Amino acid sequence: MRALQVTELLLDHAGAALADVPVPQPGPGEVRVRVRAAAVNFPDLLMTRGDYQLKPDLPFVSGLEFAGEVDALGEMVSDWQVGDAVVGGNRFGAMAEYCVAPTAALRAKPERLTWEEAAAYPVAYLTAYVALVRCARVEPGDWVLVHGSAGGVGLAAVDLAKALGARVIAAASSADKRDAIARLYAPDAVIDGGPGFRDRVKELTDGGGADVIFDPVGGDIFDESTRCIAFGGRLLAIGFASGRIPEVSVNIPLIKGFSVVGVRAGEYGRRFPERGTENVAAIDALAAAGTIRPHIHAALDLADWREGFAMIERREVVGKVVLRP
Hints:
By secondary structure, this protein is an alpha/beta fold.
């Protein structure tokens, strides 16, 4: 089968290449899936050079999340049948014609979603849900500022915040991205996320500031966010795409009465399994109802994986890039 295989950890993904590899066989409690679409996530890029916390043994096949059809069952599998349409997340292995996953990593594909959309929503929307619902407890009418709102996770946060009844301010770095976000999701405001955004946020919120700030960027963005958050607000630390991990003097949240909350959606589910199951069920139900829908920036053949990776590195993507094995 065709697969994007990493044989060496090198810069510029030089150790990754399309290869013919054996079709994997499912073990006990596992199923094999004929992959119809695999989403490209930033950790996939990092893993090709060994810069991600997870470092699989070489060689390995890239790809965290996928959508496809159950193709074969391992022993002791009773909850899936051959032909079932599923979405799934695995630590790696999705960027191939076939992948193997434990049954617990699969769920039914929402019928409303295409293969490409189904591959693109699990990780991004789960992160957004844990952040906005579990950690920030967003209420209808809250002002929610989303940084990095053109990215897969940021755009999911915009979409979900609107579904929760919040007033949404989407911040993005380029005019083209802002135009696309406004057209696709119609948030209450779309602003330039560059230096000085705090003044625009204060203006939009009549001086009160944002009740919730969703920050996957970190660095200077985090620093300035502390200047436009409402009293009693929740500043969500999602990640550090800027490359700098910021620090905050404790007197600032003390005086302004806001909380800084770290968000790790996967770890949240591991710590609180019951709530983790509820989280997944909630986003699946929203997707099945058509209340949320991921945007696919580009759907490429697996052979064009390098162009898909480059789109992310050039920071031109609005939503998600998906590969079709």
